[in-house]
Amino acid sequence: MKNHFHILIGILISFSTSVHSASSNTLGAFLGKAYHEEENATLYALEYERRISPHFALGGALEQAKIDNENKNSVVASIFYYPSSHWRFGLGYGIEDTDHGESESILRLSVAYEIHITESISLAPSFSVDQVNGESSNLAGLSASYHF
Asked: What domains can you pick out in the chain, each with its CATH number?
């Protein structure tokens, strides 16, 4: 998983030098729930996003889901499309590791609606569908973000 994290950071840094604007960067914290069949997990995440054009951004998330006494850690890289200043649609790919040492690929589709509290702070209710080993999980929650 460490190699995947280094690759993700390298990609984000390489794109971050290509765009210069007052608020091209976003750092956020996510809190939500993941639902899969009978399991419900509390999900925490740190998110980073870099605008590469007025309508597109690249981002990454470090996530931890707690199901009973098991932790699942994930790294997900995404590309986002902003058709307006509030809506965000995403497509992502990542790796999920469990406490038992198992790794699985994640494919994610997401949608969020950003509510701008100030010019630099926003809240975004979001919904995602993850495909992990052919099974779907739904994620719902709220991100609090700082734009700089």
From this structure: 2-147 (2.40.160.20)
